[in-house]
Amino acid sequence: MPSLTLPPELLPTDGRFGCGPSKIRTEQLAHLSANADILGTSHRQAPVKQLVARVRTALADLFNVPAGFEVILGNGGSTAFWDAAAFSLIERRSAHLSFGEFGAKFASAASAPWLEAPFIVTAAAGTRAEFEADALSTAGIDLVAWPHNETSTGVMTPVVRAAGTPAGALTVVDATSAAGGIQFDASKTDVYYFAPQKNLGSDGGLWFALFSPAAIERVEAYGKHLLYRWSSGDTLHVHLGLYGKFRRLHTPAPEPRGALRLRLEGEPYTADLRGPIACELLDPAREQLLLDRLGPDPLRRDGDPELFAANLRRRRIPIGAALMDQSVIAGIGNVYRAEILLLLGIDPRRPARELREEEMRAVWDTTKRLLTAGVKANRIVTRPRRPGRKGRVPRDEAVWVYRRQDCAQCGGPVERYELAARTMYACATCQPAARINGV
Rounded to two decimals, what is the model's pTM? Predict the structure, then answer.
């Protein structure tokens, strides 16, 4: 891009020029008014999902994000992002350049009680702070942060990985007063975040962020297992099972009572974990042993349908039992196995290796579709919403066959029998036993 130099008489007298919120154009308000029917709509509804998808795609194109990056968004503006980053991106200790109000606020949020005190380099307003060459490598840092364009002063900092940044540490850049107005290379960051009320002339009550694969994987889910990796090399492993649950409390939380397995304290909330099957710290070797015994996860980017099919071909056991085997496919429980096989018309007692190749792929694709829908709804919902029905889908309308007396697909009776130490629910009409022999 050719360089452009403005004559001195056209330069603003205040270096903060362009850092403040943009004026909302009349055309934007007219468009909002013309599409007012989407206002107040649940985020689970198709028009809202489609709008969010268009915005994410447009931002990915605008910033030319590298492969593997994702556009993440949330409510609450940059302040909410700082709190989320302190909880989930900083593992132990962060480093910050603070040369204005916004850089100082993130550094303050990173002073959460469960973290070590952040390493902060400050500079006077109107000047730029910089890290000394060896400062980061000696301070036990796992996240490095600064503003691209400090909103309160207008001072810009290059988007590069700071010299001496430790291996594995994330580079996180506040772009609220820069995004959309200054060119940069997203590959030089792990998180490039902003509230869109500046150059993009939008609502300041939102935040958007470009997340690298390294940032996304700070907290990882594999099947039914939650893995939170710490800079020490240990991994917190949580498996909720049937009864495990995180409960959010306001800080300061009351003294714990009963069998509390884990408490994460922060501001303004504390999270308590009770009733999980597993809650433990794993070293890298034990974590690898856990991962090695898990089959492919349809929700993960590396989920491999061919590996799933190969696992089925080696199993003489019934397909209903194979789907509960986490070494065959990770993440399926009793509800999903009943619903998946009902939708595909497959008898649960049919030997797994006798399924045809197209049936194996259909099981994978249906599993991925239902699990994805469950993540978005934050509950298991395998049936489409009835026409005219609004609000939360009642439990008896959420599934086709699981724990029902009659099949919601055909109206026939639901059979119950034990399979893989759990009660299997199936419809004799939709899943005829004759198919056990491949007929």
Answer: 0.57
